[in-house]
Amino acid sequence: MAFESLSEKLQNVFKNLKRKGRLTEADVKEALKEIKRALLAADVSFKVVRNFIKTVEERSVGADVMNGLNPGQMVVKIVNEELVNLMGSETTEIQFQPGKAITVIMMAGLQGAGKTTTAAKLAGIFTKKGKKPLLVAGDIYRPAAIKQLEVNAEKQGVEVFSMGDQVKPPEIAKAALEYANKNNNDVVILDTAGRLHIDEDMMSELQEIKDTITVHQTILVIDAMTGQDAVNVAAEFNEKIGLDGVIVTKLDGDTRGGAALSVKAVTGKPILYVGMGEKLTDLEQFYPERMASRILG
Ligand code: GDP
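Predict the joint structure of the above. Result:
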């Protein structure tokens, strides 16, 4: 489970803080040093940790806290609030177009991040919201991707638009949109091709899709298990094609949690959902407050 070790370490720091009646500045600094170590061990990016610690320190060594009734408790509260801020403070919902207008969502991400699975998971969530999503098979380079999308879509009771693997993704996207119009779909989810690493072809293909049709939401899928690499990938995608939000998958297998903690701070883009398993129901809306509580126990 994510954050296991971070959670344990922070709880130890907090136990010590709360036990003390009065706190000196040195006590706070010592606690912050341990918090810093715990965050770095959780693979939170260094810059993010530095800023985090600075903010908590500035807020904690103020007279209000140090002379307050329960300084230890106050420091814990500040750490909690700043963890929530780090992850985006508020829950961000995917914005749909008004009325019957079609919302186009493009899924992006490296191969294996969980794009195809997450597209099908999202389709299920939208169906429950009363939408009529259309999944579009745009990952034409990975041999099994189209079939995988079809199998998952069928489980979700959602239709797939596919043109096989010979038509270019921007053309598929355009045809899919025409189909969606006739078919009364109100959400179109485009699965796209990933690569093992960021490369120009992938980026320009995504950009071409965006130049061909109006994409309302570009959502990047990142694999939590790859930690800071995932965050770097997110920064690069955001710079090159512009993101509206991020979905962090495989949080169920990631014991550290650094990607989930850093990605908003690094890219400025919110986490929308988190993947918590391989089953099609294992996608949860992301609540920064709940995540912070999960970490702090
Ligand atoms: P894509 O190449 O980005 O389309 O990746 P896939 O959707 O094919 O996913 C790659 C693998 O990750 C598959 O085996 C998925 O079942 C698995 N996967 C996706 N999301 C999650 C998740 O949240 N948790 C776990 N444990 N596995 C996931």
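The beta strands are 103-108, 133-138, 159-161, 187-192, 217-223, 245-249, 271-275, 283-285.
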